[in-house]
Amino acid sequence: MNKLLIVGTVAFDAIETPFGKTDKILGGAATYIGLSSSFFNVDAAIVSVVGEDFPKEHLDLLANKGINIEGIEIVKGGKTFFWSGKYHNDLNSRDTLVTELNVLADFNPIVPNAYKNAEVVLLGNLHPLVQTGVLDQMETKPKLIVLDTMNFWMDCALPELLDVIKKVDVITINDEEARQLSGEYSLVKASQKIQTMGPKYVVIKKGEHGALLFHNKEVFFAPALPLEEVFDPTGAGDTFAGGFAGYIAQSENISFDNMKNGIIYGSNLASFCVEKFGTERMEKLEKEEVIARLQQFKALTQFEIELD
Amino acid sequence: MNKLLIVGTVAFDAIETPFGKTDKILGGAATYIGLSSSFFNVDAAIVSVVGEDFPKEHLDLLANKGINIEGIEIVKGGKTFFWSGKYHNDLNSRDTLVTELNVLADFNPIVPNAYKNAEVVLLGNLHPLVQTGVLDQMETKPKLIVLDTMNFWMDCALPELLDVIKKVDVITINDEEARQLSGEYSLVKASQKIQTMGPKYVVIKKGEHGALLFHNKEVFFAPALPLEEVFDPTGAGDTFAGGFAGYIAQSENISFDNMKNGIIYGSNLASFCVEKFGTERMEKLEKEEVIARLQQFKALTQFEIELD
Fold this sequence. Notes:
Chains A, B: This is Sugar kinase. The structure is a homodimer. Chain A is an alpha/beta fold. Chain A has one domain (3-301): Ribokinase (UDP-N-acetylmuramoyl-L-alanine:D-glutamate ligase, 3-Layer(aba) Sandwich), CATH 3.40.1190.20. Chain A has 11 helices and 14 strands. Chain A has a 9-stranded mixed β-sheet with strand order 6-5-1-9-10-11-12-13-14, with helices on both faces. In chain A, strands 2, 3, 4, 7 and 8 form a 5-stranded mixed β-sheet that branches. In chain A, α8 (236-251) runs antiparallel to α9. Chain A binds chain B through residues 89-90, 185-189, 206, 209-210, 212, 218-221, 223, 226-230, 257, 260-261, 264-265, 291, 294, 299-305, 307, and chain B through 89-90, 185-189, 206, 209-210, 212, 218-221, 223, 226-230, 257, 260-261, 264-265, 291, 294, 299-305, 307.
């Protein structure tokens, strides 16, 4: 079984959408990535940090999904990272209400020895120096390194971000971030420019409008599944990345054609994530549901044109 | 050869985009629809109206593409409909600078006798009463009636619009218009509601984000081709509709599966339309280019996931 090393936040979220609001619930990029990747036959481990206030049942939930949690440091007397946000009516934009870094402020990631030879590494959205710190601990060169980031680091830590970007194979960012990072409005041109910065594969996430995968002159598109109702978009991007990396790790195949399948799986899993608040849907998701939805993705995208 | 009857504007446009501006050039929904449908083996005819100021070479252009122009009335002493618009930097929105209805204000469409038995009718964006007026002249029931409309008629002529919508098989509108017409934010719910208003097939155009085709519980998605540069979006929606209707008319097959091919062709042709100002690209487009781009659409969307 291939190893997938995940670094990212394990956190508390409090979420408000037009459909309701939650108290502090389980959240964090690595949580969503881990849950999503657990649908594949991989040996996944999370490197993260939480405070002493973090409930054991949340850690048990991850462990029960087969995720190694040895690398989740619990800081004595510390408080867990907390994020609170309120989505606008169209669910496409949100306001951050609270960001309490807490134990994340001094996070020094330690990769468990058993995962220093992981085949696939997924660097979830975190300070670029933390992402670099994880790569520096690897004892064998991973077959694939995937990096997720956001505009915040482009604004506040661009040199450090550019440095870690040089070292990765795949970058996943949204359309606005691709434009900011490249200075190009056209996503085709943006992806070309970003490919010169390091990553040979650029995944541009467009939320409800799907995701694009670029490599050299090739491009592939995975739509988002049209849903009757999107309940809570929190974690959809991380779930997408976790599905992509989990599938690639399972299949041991880093060809462009196989990455197409990876982003279809990513989009598939993300379509479940948004159906309920927080991690609720992903916690109870069954493999059969994922397979059934794969058929929906085929019906949504496959066509047969006979050329005369 | 099947007959395709097109009703819509034949007009002058003056367009400004971040890439430049034009004087009065050939424009109008029926013009773009006609040019797009001319890539298929169909007997197409345009019903429209122009003024005496409309250059003969524009009419010749359409005729030379094999389009019957007998139904384009030339009003003695009249002036042709003129629209002028300026696109914003992202090309996703625009301001209308000038709308001079001129001869369109009193347009009374007359369907040539030879097309009163057309198999496919495409009602381009016009006052709903004009669209109804065309349907009333048909002597045999068309196999497929496609209607394009816009928010303007929802605001100003909703009862008349709802009346003509009842009589059509396919409606093509953009995402915001689908939301306005249905009162539903979710495009899935919006399409379900619109299907109860008449059209059994709902095509929702999302511009650079592609197009969705809904029918009962089925849904299909055609992406827009990611382009290095979009030069001028004018006419893209009409080109899309013309490609869809032209393909359906040629293939004599109104199944859902064949409509999938229709919207792929629509998206294909629209991807050329935006590459140059106005009708310039469509005028010179070769069939071989369309076929080559079809391969790009396949590469963009087709995937092979083996289920274990």
